[in-house]
Structure formats: structure tokens, C-alpha cells
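mind reviewing both lines:
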Amino acid sequence: MVACGVLLAACSSSSSSSAIGTPAGESPSTAIEPSASSSSFSATGSPVPSTTVDGEWNGTWKADSGGSGTFSVSFSQTGSSLDGTLSISVSCLDGAKVTGKVKGHSIQFGSVKGQCSVDYKGTIKGDQMSGTYGLGQIDAGTWKASRA
């Protein structure tokens, strides 16, 4: 199965790759790269509060190589920090711990289980979110989810 192979590539035992912008020794799932879309200020300069994503989300993913599938993730949010659990039909990721951050309408999180690690970046719009996922520094596909 092609999609499984793409996601399983993240399960390698190599620890030399890290997310772009992740300081050495820091988990890639907790680093947030600066960008115009992740600004925490409105066009008028007022602070934009972080969006609340607490709870269950159901979604789909599509690998750049052509595979696809479904997932669900349960987030527990404290301020801008996220913790949770991923449910997906890819054995190396099913039940993976999820950690990340929400800043304004941007979300960045990672799932880690053993040597398997995938990083997700996206935008939140109400009860919908979508973005891209990567394996280390390699973009691997897209994802979207809706609040359950």
C-alpha cells in the first residue's frame, strides 16, 4: 500500500532529520515557525486570541504519492499548548502521542510513537482545519479535519 509506505517512512530508526526551524534537542512538534499566516495580531494591531481546538476531530489525509486514508485526533488544549492522541490505520502511528501549539488561527502539531514521527501544519477556520504534513524536512501530503 503506497500511503502506508509513505507514512511508514517516518518510522525509520534515523534520528538525524529534524523539522525546519527546530532547535537541536527540541521536539519538532513543539516548534512554531514564524510566518505571516501565523501572526497573533490582527490587521489593526490587536492581539488575536488562539483558536480553541479542544476535543475530538475527524479527518482525511492524502499522500503526495497518491495514497489516502482517515484519522481522528483527540486534543486537550491548555492555553496555546496541545496534547492528545492520534487514531489512524497506520500501525506505526496508531495511538501516537500528539503535542503541539495553536497560535491565532494556525496550528502545528506532531505525532510520535517510538521512532515514528510526523509533523502537521495548518490553518483553523471555525470547526474545520486543514494543512500539510511532513516527514522530517520532506513534505509528504495534505490533511483536513472537522470537529466531531
Residues 6 and 119 are 13 Å apart (CA to CA). The helical segments are 2-8. The mean pLDDT is 78.
